[in-house]
């Protein structure tokens, strides 16, 4: 470039030439995607690892669920088999019990059992290894101590008495054909407790009435012959028979060893009047009137006036009855 000179008056300024040099420009080449092509996306290792963990957790959960389903299925099968086995065992036990009962009752045909099927004799006494001799000659003076000794271990565990009762099973079974007659079978409360023909209490037969001479009761020997009578608790249809027995055998005292209802099960029909001066007429041959009633903590004493009326003739007697509330 040529030097430039400027003259102003007497001064002269000389400017040195300025040389300007332009550096070359460097252009970076950027790759651009042409139309129709997708740009490659960079891979994130963290995202990829999280996805793998999610899949792993899902597979583990599905495996656990499958194991639980299989376990529940196996348990249900086991429970079903146990229940079925218990049911079959119960049926087998019932069939054995029924067969034994049928053997005992082979003398007559079993009828359909109703409310009186509260047979307490199905109770099985436990087996005992210690033999206790049964004493049949206990003096009266020693009897209270004997009872205390038999029940001394535990009031709820009468094992010694149970052994004695068990040993009674060796007594041979005698004939009880009268109790199994068709007109008498329904007069028994239980289907396997009958009075023997030799010791049963016969009643005076009423002409034209089948079964009028039968009651489920047996004589019990005392010091002077037949001093006591053991009878079943009356049924509704045997209240007349019960009071005729009391009248005919001049029974002075009645001791009832059960309640009318125990554990919601009927054990005895109420054969006495409910309130004072009330009168019942069992069989239309006797009248029973409650003359007095005295309750105690554990028992109840009632005095009953019994009258027999026949063709205008009237006879009466007073009986004392001890019952449990």
TrEMBL record:
<feature type="region of interest" description="Disordered">
    <location>
        <begin position="90"/>
        <end position="122"/>
    </location>
</feature>
<keyword id="KW-1133">Transmembrane helix</keyword>
<dbReference type="InterPro" id="IPR050348">
    <property type="entry name" value="Protein-Tyr_Phosphatase"/>
</dbReference>
<feature type="region of interest" description="Disordered">
    <location>
        <begin position="1"/>
        <end position="21"/>
    </location>
</feature>
<feature type="transmembrane region" description="Helical">
    <location>
        <begin position="57"/>
        <end position="80"/>
    </location>
</feature>
<dbReference type="InterPro" id="IPR000242">
    <property type="entry name" value="PTP_cat"/>
</dbReference>
<dbReference type="Pfam" id="PF00102">
    <property type="entry name" value="Y_phosphatase"/>
</dbReference>
<feature type="compositionally biased region" description="Polar residues">
    <location>
        <begin position="1"/>
        <end position="15"/>
    </location>
</feature>
<keyword id="KW-0812">Transmembrane</keyword>
<feature type="domain" description="Tyrosine-protein phosphatase">
    <location>
        <begin position="161"/>
        <end position="308"/>
    </location>
</feature>
<dbReference type="GO" id="GO:0004725">
    <property type="term" value="F:protein tyrosine phosphatase activity"/>
</dbReference>
<protein>
    <submittedName>
        <fullName>Receptor-type tyrosine-protein phosphatase H</fullName>
    </submittedName>
</protein>
<keyword id="KW-0472">Membrane</keyword>
<dbReference type="InterPro" id="IPR029021">
    <property type="entry name" value="Prot-tyrosine_phosphatase-like"/>
</dbReference>
<feature type="compositionally biased region" description="Basic and acidic residues">
    <location>
        <begin position="100"/>
        <end position="116"/>
    </location>
</feature>
<keyword id="KW-0675">Receptor</keyword>
